[in-house]
Amino acid sequence: MSNSDILVLHFLIAGGFAIWVTMDSKKRGKLEWSHALLSFVLLWWACLPFYLAGRKLLAGETREGGYGWNVCKYFILFWSLLLGYCFLGGMMNLSDHLSQKEINDAQTAGAAIAIGLGSGMFFCLWIGVVIPVGIIGLLMKKNSVIETGTPNGAPTPNTQSAPPYPASRPASPETTSQVTILVARQGKNIGSFDSNAFKQNVTAGLILPSDHYWIQGMAGWELVSNYRG
Q: Are residues 31 and 77 in the same domain?
């Protein structure tokens, strides 16, 4: 594969990502032309993580961990794809070069050593970026942040706007021996349960970790994933 072939292939890949960003962002109600343009000018591996981490979510889509964590997560993915692509391209070039001439045993051994050194260099380059970016991402990760897409594409962080208190609250613990747990999903009450029914519904997946619960006496609503009863 010649250098011109590699350049053409790179532009095809970058152009494909740019077209995908254009179509995907338009579908979500906001055309991200700047991300699409940068994806085309050889920066798709650095631009797409920011687009994917901050794009509008559609109904049924969720995103966890916060913006910083998702940027780091997607950057590691695309950095790995970029280095893998470069490594395979280099190996193909070397193979084409060696196939065009006869080589003796010493030259074969030298080529093998060169391949080993090149592989080690690519691995060091990959791990030297992945480890620090992964550490930064873990430090920025917010497990309580769960964004949920709405029909108009605007993400709704569940942890930033707890659902309002219900119009009628359960009786106080002094008047009943059974604790009542109210559950809300995306700001709407979906039912009240005793502790046993609540746990059974959580186990069955009918109550989601991203839902909120409230018990008489609590200062505010909490994520079901934080329930320790």
A: yes
